[in-house]
Amino acid sequence: MSESLNTSSRPRVLSGMRPTGKLHLGNYMGALANWVKLQDSGQYECYFFIADWHALTSDYADPSNIEPNSREVMLDYLAAGLDPQKTVLFQQSRILQHAELPLLLGMITPLGWLERVPSYKEMQDNLTTKDLTTYGFLGYPVLMASDILLYQPKYVPVGQDQQAHVELTREVARRFNNFYKLNGREVLPEPDVLLTPSPKLPGTDGRKMSKSYGNTIELNDPEPVVRQKLKTMVTDPARIRRKDPGDPDKCPVGDLHKVFSTPETLARVYEGCRSAGIGCIECKGWAADALVQILNPIQERRARYTPGEVEDILKDGSDRARTRAEQTMTEVRAAMQLTSAGK
Ligand code: TRP
Ligand code: SF4
Fold first, then answer.
1. How many angstroms separate the alpha carbon of residue 77 from the centre of ligand 1?
2. Is the pLDDT of residue 215 over 80?
3. Which of 242, 243, 251 to mutate to test the pocket of ligand 2 (most atoms within 8 A of CB)?
4. Is the pLDDT score of 225 beyond 70?
5. Distance of CA 91 to the CA centre of its chain
6. Does the pLDDT value for residue 156 go beyond 60?
7. How far, in Å, is the centroid of ligand 1 from the Cα of 300?
8. Are residues 293 and 328 in the same domain?
9. Which of 77, 162, 221, 222 has its CA 20 to 30 A from that of 285?
């Protein structure tokens, strides 16, 4: 039989992101580029989504940005190379099964499991401007477990920061399967984490690139903006004057070269920096060249989509995801003997 994109025999993969606004290079290298690789390998049935209800757990007081941000993120997904012909792209809030399953899983999830999730205390300590002592925020991992288990994926590609959430998902699934079975069979398979290797990607201030630090290079930054941001980027603090030698291993610009530049350019950077043969301005120009090369095709793809097309893709993908999610819910309800649910 010829290779078909619809063979459900391929292992399923599912992942998502909160719609925090336009995505940056850190999001791309830490997640999106890997998703595109998984998609293009043809080996997996891919589901990638926008976790807009997750954004609500912290932004409930002013939800006005969530919907516009969801559209920007979908555009960035498409721009990065996710293809609605190959992959199911959807938005969480369009699929009400993402609200039903957390209600049911919440019944069996011990409070202690949630309070012990590392991000729970961390986020509360870090986001001091927002009151996160809510039921919804505590329940974040149950919502996430439901996002995953609804699609019965084999793998969940995430960065290390999300690993604990996937572990909890496995524990919740195990507990569910212990309590409830359908004709003696387990309903919710435990998914495996597929850890995304994420290169060290510094922002313009040298700290990890992150929207909350305001140090990002966005996927949609035009070339002059990329070049300007590079100009302001911090360098090896030992290189004060042009004639001082520096060390690319102690320089955030050097880290960018390691990720994005060709081996030849990287060799020129090491040689020129350590011998003070090149200046930082020149070196930053080369880094900008490499970034622009990565960003150009992404920006060209982004520009091709109209708002109407994005809406169609979201609707279509969400319809497909809903059908899959409902299959799981039918089994979940039956296993829990909720025979009247939804009637
Ligand atoms: N919590 C994830 C993040 O902040 C987003 C997310 C929500 C997710 N649901 C998911 C990731 C399900 C993978 C699978 O990045
Ligand atoms: Fe950093 Fe390049 Fe300057 Fe060396 S030459 S300190 S690697 S910017």
1. 15
2. yes
3. 251
4. yes
5. 13
6. yes
7. 27
8. no
9. 77
- Statement to judge: residues 155 and 111 lie in one domain: yes
Give the residues across from 155 on adjacent strands. Answer: 13, 192
The pTM score is 0.93
Q: For residue 95, give the CATH number of its domain.
A: 3.40.50.620
Q: 235 C-alpha to center of ligand 2: Å?
A: 6
* 167 lies in the same domain as 292: no
Q: How many CB atoms lie within 10 A of CB 116?
A: 13
Each residue of 283-322: b (16+ CB within 10 Å) or e?
bbebbbbbbbebbeebeebbeeeeeeebeebbeebbeebb
Residues 128 and 36 in one domain: yes
* Residue 51 shares a structural domain with residue 132: yes
Q: Indicate if ligand 1 lies below 6 Å from the C-beta of 31.
A: no
Asked whether the beta carbons of 258 and 199 are under 8 A apart, the reply is: yes
250 and 174, same structural domain?
no
* 4 pLDDT tier (thresholds 50, 70, 90): very low
CB of 156 closer than 6 angstroms to any ligand 1 atom: yes
pLDDT for residue 2 is more than 50: no
Torsion angle of C-alpha atoms 221, 227, 229, 235, degrees rounded to 10: 140
Pocket of ligand 2 (CB under 6 A): 235-236, 239, 246, 248, 251, 253-254, 269, 273, 278, 280, 283-284
List the CATH number of the domain containing 219.
1.10.240.10
Unique residue bearing structure tokens 């002592």: 133
Question: Each residue of 20-78: pLDDT tens digit?
Answer: 889 999 999 999 999 999 999 999 999 999 999 999 999 999 999 999 999 999 999 99
Alpha helices in 275-335 (DSSP H): 280-303, 307-335
Closest C-alpha residue for ligand 1 atom 2: 17
pLDDT over 80 (residue 237)? yes
Q: Is the CB of 157 under 6 A from ligand 1?
A: no
Mutate to test the pocket of ligand 1, among 54, 119, 142 (most ligand atoms within 8 A of CB): 54
Q: Provide the percentage of residues in the chain whose pLDDT is more than 70.
A: 98
Average pLDDT of 285-294?
98
Query: Quick check: is 292 in a domain?
Result: yes
- Give the domain extent around 149: 3-201+306-335
Q: Atom 15, ligand 1: which residue's CA is nearest?
A: 17
Same domain, 153 and 25: yes
